[in-house]
Amino acid sequence: MAKNTKNHLLSVAQMYEADQRTIESGISGIRLMEAAGSAIAREITTRWSPRKTVILCGPGNNGGDGFVVARLLHNKGWYVRILLLGERDNLKGDAKTNADRWPFETQPFSPDGIKDADLIVDAVFGAGLVRDVDGIVALTLKAAQQQNVPIIAVDMPSGVDGDSGQILGMAIQADITVTFCRAKTGHYLLPGRTLCGDVIVADIGIQDPIIEQIAPENTKNAPAHLFPWPKTEGHKFDRGHGVIVGGQQMTGATRLAALCARRVGAGLITIAARGTAYMVYRTCEPGNLVSNDNLNEILADPRKNTVLIGPGLGIGEGRKALVKDLLNTDKNLILDADALTMLAGHNWQNRAGETLLTPHEGEFKRLFPDITGSKLERARQAAHQSKATVLLKGPDTVIAAPDGRCTINTTGTPWLATAGSGDSLAGICLGLICQGLNSYDGACLGTWLHGKCAETGGVGLISEDISTLLPEVLKTLQK
Ligand SMILES: NC(=O)C1=CN([C@@H]2O[C@H](COP(=O)(O)OP(=O)(O)OC[C@H]3O[C@@H](n4cnc5c(N)ncnc54)[C@H](OP(=O)(O)O)[C@@H]3O)[C@@H](O)[C@H]2O)[C@@H](O)CC1
Ligand SMILES: [K+]
Fold first, then answer.
1. Ligand nearest to the CA of 128
2. Helix (H) or strand (E) holding 255
3. Which segments constitute the YjeF C-terminal domain (predicted)?
4. Among 21, 171, 357, 434, who pairs with 242 as Cys (CB 3.0-4.6 Å)?
């Protein structure tokens, strides 16, 4: 049966491979370019009425797409001018063919060339961006930006690296970006995600089996089908028993995590509490189980399959030893916040249970100081090194599995940058993993749900809202 590959994200190299395999299968490059240009022209004409349009064409096939757009808009009666980077005579292949089909003059890149534009098409660089944007290109792109008119980027906003989403030199801010076949990782990693505006993925005739053969390791997540719906014949012990090592001072973190774990369906949540915090937990949410037994005794029950440690935990030698002891158990583990900080320099080994690490950037740097690269690559390397699933938090959260798979999460709002938000996310993951999801699926679904709660809550969201919003979000997943 054909796999659904729609949520796969391609690297730039994989996109070239898909193009190449398609051309070898008998669909010519010129046909692909015509389909690409047609898709862009269609997106423009469905949004805007005819207006003075300037198309910035680069020296490669991205520019070739620009020539197709120019011809198609001109045929519909639009006033179109082309600014071309480099000499027209130097164009090659499909770009040259389409330049030859444009019967009018082109003008060189210059800021003045933008002046009367009411709409701008950025067809300067796409997949072939290889070095910093500077000189006359940077000046012309800046002028385009200052013109304050809609900007439509072809494939990528020029200056954005298609793999990492990073800016090379400078980049243009687009209103919409039309890309082809599948989105690339750079469309969803910051700052690329912001610079793209709305991302539209157009079908240009590359068949799904080609994407299946390439087997991309990256996805944007749409994991709703993974949700572990309670079974009619089930009872609470079928729905997992999670344990949270309760913080002694910052008890709120544990309580938020417990609420979220229960909201996503965990059958039971036990808070392991010590000292005066024990009474705090006892007198709060009545649905939590609270125990001040020794943690080993609590975990002796094999039904308690998943442990979250870190939220509100604090730092200290005793606590560090506790975290290390837990790593030696066969329980599924979610390590967050202070638990991660105390594992700096840890010698990671394979474990019997699932392991999920949920660092933000600061914790990540402490844990993996030698790992560099794009956010995606850093998360992937960390997962490989730690043999754990790594959920690298941020507005473009990346989840990486030790086997090389990665997901870029696309849900959420800036309101999630608030105290307790990470504790809630850890709790959601705990609730899902204790119900039997593996750590990668639990982390992908958990992050997605967490973001959806923020989108549903809208402005003014605080972390206490997240657990209350979960039922509304879960309802949207029901068939
Ligand atoms: N393949 C297909 O079938 C299809 C491909 N399609 C389209 O093709 C696009 C990829 O085309 P591409 O490979 O020609 O790369 P592209 O983005 O045009 O740039 C290469 C040129 O830019 C130059 N250059 C780079 N960086 C620079 C800088 N900073 N400053 C200055 N110059 C710089 C670079 O120069 P060079 O390094 O060679 O000196 C080279 O001349 C893809 O994004 C999509 O839009 C669609 O039509 C669908 C079918
Ligand atoms: K572009």
1. 1
2. helix 251-263
3. 219-477
4. 434
Query: Considering only CA atoms, which of 395, 471, 409, 402 is closest in space to residue 446?
Result: 409
Same domain, 120 and 175: yes
Which bound ligand lies closest to the C-alpha atom of 40? 1
Same domain, 272 and 335: yes
Identify the residue whose tokens are 């692909």: 32
- 93 labelled binding-site residue: no
CATH number for the domain spanning 106: value is 3.40.50.10260
Structure tokens at 462: 């605080």
Q: Determine which residue's CA is closest to atom 31 belonging to ligand 1.
A: 133
- 393 assigned to a ligand binding site: yes
Nearest CA to ligand 1 atom 33: 129
Tell me the per-residue pLDDT of 130-185, one tens digit each, with 9 for 90 and over.
999 999 999 999 999 999 999 999 999 999 999 999 999 999 999 999 999 999 99
Is 309 a domain residue? yes
Q: For residues 171 and 173, give the distance between their C-alpha atoms in angstroms, rounded to a whole number.
A: 7
The verdict on residue 3 lying in a domain is no
Q: Is 255 annotated as a binding residue?
A: no
CA of 208 to the centre of ligand 1 (A): 24
**Which tokens go with 188?**
């969803």
Residues 318 and 390 in one domain: yes
pLDDT tens column, 121-142: 999 999 999 999 999 999 999 9
Q: Tell me how far CA of residue 439 lies from CA of 58, 239, 456, in angstroms.
A: 44, 16, 25
State the amino acid at position 140 in one-letter form.
T
65 annotated among ligand-binding-site residues: yes
Does the CB atom of residue 59 touch ligand 1 within 6 A?
A: yes
Domain shared by 43 and 188, yes or no: yes
Helices (H), 290-397: 295-299, 317-327, 337-341, 361-367, 375-386
Say which residue the tokens 């996109």 belong to: 15
Amino acid identity, position 159? G
Q: Which two tokens stand for residue 140?
A: 């012309």
Compute, in angstroms, the gap from residue 130 CA to the centroid of ligand 1: 9
Please state the domain count of the chain: 2
Residue 191: cis peptide before it, omega within 30 degrees of 0? yes
Closest ligand by atom to 62 CA: 1
Beta carbon of 127 within 6 Å of any ligand 1 atom: yes
What CA–CA distance (Å, rounded) separates 409 from 254?
A: 24
Q: What is this structure's pTM?
A: 0.94
122 is in an annotated binding site: yes
Nearest atom (ligand 1) to Cα of 132: 29
Ligand 1 atom index nearest CA of 65: 47
Kindly give the number of the ligand 1 atom that is closest to the alpha carbon of 19. Answer: 3
Pocket of ligand 1 contains residue 60 by CB under 6 Å: yes
Q: Please give the order of strands across the beta sheet that includes 389-392.
A: 8-9, 218-220, 406-408, 398-400, 389-392, 355-357, 332-335, 304-309, 241-245, 268-272, 289-291
Question: What mean pLDDT value characterizes the chain?
Answer: 96
